[in-house]
Amino acid sequence: MGKHALLSASASHRWLNCPPSVRLSEGIPDKGSEYAQEGTDAHSLCEYRLKKLLGMEAVDPTEHLDWYNGEMEECAENYASYVLELLEKAKETCADPVVLVEQRVDFSRFVENGFGTADCIIISDGAMNIVDYKHGKGVEVSAEGNPQMMLYALGALEIFDGIYDIDEVQMTIFQPRLGNVSVGEMTKAALIEWADGELSEKARLAYDGGGEYSCGEWCRFCKAKAVCRKRAEENLRMARYDFAPADTLDETEIAAVLVSWVTDVKEYALSQALQGVIYPGYKVVEGRSARKYSNEELVARVVSEAGYDPYAHKVLGLTEMQKLLGRQKFNELLSAYVVKPQGKPVLVPDNDKRPNMNTAQNDFKEEN
């Protein structure tokens, strides 16, 4: 579409916590990043794989994806398989659930000119599931109380609530590179209450440039973070931690350092250096890069003509294999070989609904 909402769903965590950051960021170019470009490519691939699996018309985007690789392919296949599993589960209670891929939603009833695109929406009798793919592996994203997902849900309700009489809303984050599948649930009534209250109030402030500046982990993706006075004051306050030995800091101080501004300063310094600013003791050099083919189709043809097989062959994924064999045959032949590994340990806020993991320290306590 090429047009972005001023109060976008993807940036809602920031403008809900710091309403005036929206207008402060106006006019500052969005430089993007390699991570953002990689994420865009991954979303395109996920859309294609999901549509293919659902039997929808789709065009293979891989030759136009700069960041395409085997890991991205596996993530997209796993995402498509997961959505299909959700759809099959919905069919247990609904004869004809609806699945929508890359669905534009409009939540402007609560947020001025608010709109966005949901990766996937599954609607069944009385229930709706908003599914969002996250390719990043820097920060684990939770679906619980996630404002981006809640905005998508509001937009979807605007379209489908009158048709399907939705009462329950489920929101799912699928983040395969961190092994994270997070699910949040709320009633439609609770969602509307939030929308009429906190959301509408903060959105109005943000659109008008009002409200109080507030610093937090949401500053990370703010275009104005390098010029924000409130952020500068917070940076100076936190600078004192740099002069304290790590083993003298308490848990609260370490938590503060974890969301420190060091990365912000490095990014800003690099952008200034590229414009000619010289920092004593530093220089700008070309980063390391990996080799890649300029044209994979041509490479495959050349290698084939030379008498070699240029393609890697691998075992079909779980969903594709089940589709090939059928559910009964799949279970008969492969049930003994299908496992679900334990997820790797992740440090999360204590309001996360997942149960505590048994750590080595807990095991030791139990033994004694």
Description:
Helix content is 42%, strand content 11%. It has helices spanning 12-17, 21-24, 34-54, 70-90, 147-164, 188-208, 229-238, 251-258, 262-274, 296-305, 318-325, 327-334, 360-367, and strands at 98-106, 115-124, 127-133, 168-175, 180-187.
Note the run of SSEs as H and E: HHHHEEEHEEHHHHHHHH
End-to-end separation? 62 Å
Strand line-up in the sheet with most strands: 1-2-3-4-5
Average pLDDT: 83
Please tell me how large the radius of gyration is.
24 Å
Proportion of β residues?
5-15%
Total count of helical runs of at least 4 residues = 13
Based on Cα principal axes, name the global outline: globular
The class by helix and strand makeup works out as alpha+beta
Bin the helical content.
40-55%
- Largest sheet geometry: 5 strands, mixed
Task: Tell me the total number of β-strands.
Answer: 5
Spans of at least 5 consecutive residues with low confidence? none
Brief summary of the model shown:
The protein is an alpha+beta fold and 368 residues long.
SSE topology:
Elements: H1 12-17, H2 21-24, H3 34-54, H4 70-90, E1 98-106, E2 115-124, E3 127-133, H5 147-164, E4 168-175, E5 180-187, H6 188-208, H7 229-238, H8 251-258, H9 262-274, H10 296-305, H11 318-325, H12 327-334, H13 360-367
Parallel strand pairs: 3-4
Antiparallel strand pairs: 1-2, 2-3, 4-5
Helix pairs in contact: 3-4, 11-12
